[in-house]
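Pipeline run #58 for the internal structure catalog. This entry was flagged by the ingest filter as a single-chain record with no existing model, so it goes straight to prediction. Upstream metadata was stripped on purpose; only the residue string is passed forward. Reviewer on rotation: M.T. Logging verbosity set to normal.
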Amino acid sequence: MRVTGGIFRGRKIQGTPGHVTRPTTDKVRQSIFNILMNDIEGTSVLDIFAGSGALGIDAISRGAVSAVFIESGRNPSEAIKANLRSLQLEEEVLVIDYRKACELLARKRRKFDIIFADPPYEQVMPQQVIDTVLQYDLLSDNGLLIIEHKAGQAAESDRLQLLKKRKFGQTEVTFYARRQ
């Protein structure tokens, strides 16, 4: 895997050993960031179910000012830390269940401009991610929640507006914003 754009473009990042995670492909990441093109500079990013950290790292490479990575798995979290070290980045990595991490961030009154979530398809449904992000009020007023999920599993909320959907085979990426 490689960083797909920005100051670290082309730099290699390591995946996680074995088949513990399903990494977001370079093609899907490139598409996400093409859509976000002018909305990344100066943002704070939360990468939930971070895997190797590729989405958050790509955001930093493209101008995000900070990123927090949530990953409960030991091997994936070690890959994130190694990737951050290799790029000389000092971002926060929370190695706990995503709900507990979200609660912790809420207690610290943290808000994020862009929240990426790429949960394990059959274990955590998009609706659960939406409910957790809203319960802990982690999305800034003009923020975006971007969920990668199995095609056909998109969810809805009366507090979020579905902005865009992009399908890549069995994968779908859905973009949400707060309703105004």
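catalog note: Residues 48 and 70 are 5 Å apart (CA to CA).
catalog note: The helical segments are 26-36, 54-61, 74-86, 98-107, 126-135.
status: ready for reviewer M.T.
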